[in-house]
């Protein structure tokens, strides 16, 4: 006679019973007999409402997907012979990406003779990593990949991502204050004439 280890609807152990008795108990309780561990000896079956079980497991899966954090990798491309102002602009982008909680892939593109000087790229990536070390850390150190050198920066775990709001009121005020504080240069009147 085939037998199963039966678990009741509330998780209590009923014991080892014949399959016919287990099916009869399921019909009397208006529940389903579900095999939960087929490889065990004897197999383990549970009395449950299978439709309700499927619904609750789908709800849990949906809730876990909702709570998942989607990792976005942004990319910033640089050249080894970058001007200081351009570097500051690119650094500002990297800072913004890290503040929003995104990873940043920094790529340095080498062309022609620049490929024989990879230390320029290493120095530039090291400088960038030091400039943003309060917001993120180097997840993947600088590696040469053909004509490109790649480094990945990730935000610190304890850093709360800034919301991606479109209201620029605070930014406009700060920009206005900065513009007021800048000295105004007088136009040059002493232009040399021929």
From TrEMBL:
Gene Ontology BP term (one): ribosome disassembly
Major location category of this protein: cytoplasm
Residue ranges of the region described as Disordered: 155-194
Keywords assigned by UniProt, alphabetized: Cytoplasm, Initiation factor, Protein biosynthesis
Signal sequence residues: none
Recorded coiled-coil stretches: none
Domain Translation initiation factor 3 N-terminal stretches: 2-63
Domain Translation initiation factor 3 C-terminal: 72-156
PROSITE patterns: IF3 (PS00938)
Gene Ontology CC, one term: membrane
Entry-linked InterPro entries: T_IF-3_C_sf, T_IF-3_N_sf, Translation_initiation_fac3_CS, Translation_initiation_fac_3, Translation_initiation_fac_3_C, Translation_initiation_fac_3_N
Pfam families: IF3_C (PF00707), IF3_N (PF05198)
GO molecular function, one term: translation initiation factor activity
Subcellular location: Cytoplasm
Assembly and interaction partners: Monomer.
Family, as annotated: Belongs to the IF-3 family.
HAMAP family documented for this protein: IF_3
Function as written in the Swiss-Prot or TrEMBL entry: IF-3 binds to the 30S ribosomal subunit and shifts the equilibrium between 70S ribosomes and their 50S and 30S subunits in favor of the free subunits, thus enhancing the availability of 30S subunits on which protein synthesis initiation begins.
Protein name in the entry: Translation initiation factor IF-3
Source organism of the structure: Actinokineospora terrae
Biological classification of the source: Bacteria, Bacillati, Actinomycetota, Actinomycetes, Pseudonocardiales
